[in-house]
Amino acid sequence: MLDEAARPYALRHGFLMNVAGFIRASIDPPDVADLVDEARAMLASSVAVSRVAEGWTPTYRHAPLDLRRLDIDGLTQALTPRGTPNASALSLQAVVRRAMDGLLRANPTRDELQLRFEALVARYNAGLDNAEAHFAAMVEQLRAMKTESTRAEREGLTEQELALRDVIGREAAADAPKALLTEVAKALAASLPEVMVLDWKLHQVARNRVKARVKRALYDVPVEALSDEAFARAVAAVEQWLLKAAATA
Fold it and tell me: Using CA atoms, how far apart are residues 237 and 110, in angstroms rounded to an integer?
């Protein structure tokens, strides 16, 4: 039932709706075929499809891109002939951003790569680099990131061991023995599962146990390599990274 207060405007509303319908019918729909093709190509790597009964049900994954398996040359060749140079550059930029998220999630000390990427994006957005130059810069960024993604494997470490060593090493003295930091990181990584129980980050008692375990491991680093102030910063940095990693796991 029409509200009496709105009755004087009913005729005007109907007229405007008719005009709007006429305008929509007069405008040719935009050709978005190219955009749809690009969107499908980008989604192909993040959508898993499983058959259920008579139909197909998409299941979305949010796993980070595994750079170690990425064929960079094949990717660039696939993107180059598709669409405009700007579309190719933006598609590759999206791949780099997704891969960067995974790198930073695994190791927070990779922020230099993040800063370089953001600087390249800023140059492109400001018009300082054209599409071709930005595409080439993204290729080089991907190559540097792929090299970084294999560093743990090359050094015989797990990703967690490498991240712990890098986080501790950032606070340690420049001449701190790398072998010593590696052993400390390995020992800490091996002992953490004992205290990182289910939902440990939600309970202060459990968090205190994790922090105590980090401190115990860092006591093995001599004060010459890790001063008292650096010790406190290293403990806090490791704790914060563990909390962030647990939140995004």
Answer: 14
